[in-house]
Amino acid sequence: MKFLIIFFVLFKIASGASENDTEIVHVQIVSNHGVRTPLAQYPDNPNNIWSKYSRSTGQLTDVGMRQMLKSGRKLRAKYPHLSKTYDRTRAWAFSSDFDRNIQSAQLIMTGMYQPSEGYANWTDDSTLSGFMPIPIRTAPSECDTIFRRHATCARLIQLQAEAKLNNSAKENASTAFLYKMRCMSSIELTYYDLWKLGDKALVDAAHNLTVEMYITQNLPRLMEIRDDNYFVTYLYSMELAKLISGSLLNQLVTYFDRKIKATTDNEFYLYTGFEFYLGGLQRLLGTTTNFMQPDFGAQFSFELRKNSTNNYFVHTLYKNHADEEFKTVNISGCEAFCPIEKLKTLVQDKIIINFDDACKAI
Ligand SMILES: *[C@@H]1O[C@H](CO)[C@@H](O)[C@H](O)[C@H]1NC(C)=O
Ligand SMILES: *[C@@H]1O[C@H](CO)[C@@H](O)[C@H](O)[C@H]1NC(C)=O
Ligand SMILES: *[C@@H]1O[C@H](CO)[C@@H](O)[C@H](O)[C@H]1NC(C)=O
Ligand SMILES: *[C@@H]1O[C@H](CO)[C@@H](O)[C@H](O)[C@H]1NC(C)=O
Ligand SMILES: *[C@@H]1O[C@H](CO)[C@@H](O)[C@H](O)[C@H]1NC(C)=O
Ligand SMILES: *[C@@H]1O[C@H](CO)[C@@H](O)[C@H](O)[C@H]1NC(C)=O
Ligand SMILES: *[C@@H]1O[C@H](CO)[C@@H](O)[C@H](O)[C@H]1NC(C)=O
């Protein structure tokens, strides 16, 4: 009996905190935008993207908009205990300064704070019944303190060039394939443009459009190269990933602290950016070792939780596509419910506080 009790106590300690003995105090969501139009024009494109998608390159499509609204509704269903109505002291949305990210933020927030009876009753225009406009915070790329990838950064350019040089064996091994794809697509592609063809396949498929035969026939190779292009450009070294997502990670950790110190009532933060911001977090936090380019609508959910003795934990969840469900991921070196102090120690050399210093070329 004594043995059993000791065993039980040990087991309790080893298993750490869990969903059931902690409550959510706030949630920070990092989201990729929804599906968008392709990023290049395809001369021989049988789909004629301009008439099929009726938007210019890189814009959120109707399908993408529906994905984002649904994504917000799913967050509402997952977090029913968060305030149901929008309150500026409880919910904030940040977006990087690109149309598809700002629109995604608006739709996720609309899904999260759904129109409801008696709420947002500010107009007698019935077509807008219950609609609450929610502010989205953004800043020009050069001044943005969260989404840094498009700011001038000499060290970033240096690291990307070095990474491509180090990856030249893989690039050289694809030379024949590259020439073939150039010929088939009639686009002057480089190895680091090949991802666009895999990207087009994903976009067309999301809109039930026929994908060109030369893309379908070479899809596994194109997707492999797409992941390679992405990894080399954004995640090749820890320092590179840090320049991409270290400022965002600093923001997340800073906001955990603010909540713990009770200097804010805020319980929901949304950050919408590009897939490489999620990839950068995956690399910095070590939530995976298999780096594939996050798909449209991919999301991280960082739940700050506390147990009944006021100890705080971060529970991290990830989904790779708008239509997937969240799954728990472990931050490397930590349990699924990572004690906040341990988390802060693990990320202390992964966050960026002074971006200008970090961007100095060496
Ligand atoms: C938490 O509680 C639910 C419902 O009571 C139960 O199904 C689940 O197994 C529990 N989880 C853990 C980790 O104890
Ligand atoms: C909305 O506002 C109008 C005009 O002030 C009012 O007549 C109506 O009862 C309100 N509806 C709800 C559901 O509160
Ligand atoms: C490229 O390879 C060299 C030599 O192995 C290494 O020192 C350097 O850190 C690599 N560059 C990047 C960006 O990883
Ligand atoms: C790849 O090809 C380039 C140009 O021909 C060459 O300079 C480089 O050394 C090659 N890289 C490798 C790893 O063979
Ligand atoms: C594509 O086809 C599937 C299966 O028929 C359907 O469920 C989906 O709504 C279609 N999507 C679009 C954008 O038309
Ligand atoms: C809360 O978490 C701390 C740190 O893991 C632990 O020491 C404490 O026993 C937990 N409290 C309860 C009531 O489980
Ligand atoms: C994550 O950590 C939990 C302990 O908190 C462990 O049970 C689980 O196996 C870990 N999952 C992975 C994928 O390492």
UniProtKB/TrEMBL annotation:
It catalyses: a phosphate monoester + H2O = an alcohol + phosphate. Residues 1-16 form the signal peptide. InterPro entries: His_Pase_clade-2, His_PPase_superfam, Histidine_acid_phosphatase. It is an enzyme of class 3 (hydrolase). GO terms for molecular function: acid phosphatase activity. Its EC number is 3.1.3.2. Keywords: Disulfide bond, Glycoprotein, Hydrolase, Signal. It comes from the Eukaryota. Belongs to the histidine acid phosphatase family. This is acid phosphatase.
